[in-house]
Amino acid sequence: MRFSAPALALSLALATLSSSSMGQRPDTQIDARSLALLGQAQAAYKAGNFASAEDLLETALAVDPRNRAAYVTMGEVATAQQLPGKAIRFYREALTMEPNDTAALSGEGVAMVQKGALDPAKANLARIRTLCKADCPPAVTLAAAITKGPPATLVAAQNAKVVPPKGKEAVKPD
Hints:
The chain has helices at residues 4-20, 32-46, 50-63, 68-80, 84-97, 102-115, 118-132, 137-148, 152-159. By secondary structure, it is mostly helical. The longest helix is centred in the N-terminal third of the chain and has 17 residues, at 4-20.
């Protein structure tokens, strides 16, 4: 008699937990509405309408946050807008879901080159080459970006002399 109440409560809890998980979709199945929005966003991105593409991708991710391709496309849009930090963040989200996604690794590497971080980009290239075993489009794209190097404006900014704070300037002798 002492154990009947806890046993009844435990069995009720287990029955509730098992029935609630029966209606959930597996992780590999992405919501069709999210995929449709992704297609529209990719078309807007290719047409050069970055703001519309970004809005559609945000909606696609709100519908199904497991849509890894939407994160990769968000990274591509951010890279096209010269926002490498934002792009890297989106590629990392995609890589959290699938660490061996060569498109995300390549995109992240291109964004790193845009930011001036060549060593991590080369590490991404080495990882892509081990995953592909042969030359694949993501490896070729990243290798070309590394060969091209960071943007000239970034290189010029890195090579510019640092201006001392006001009041700390060196005094020229007369």
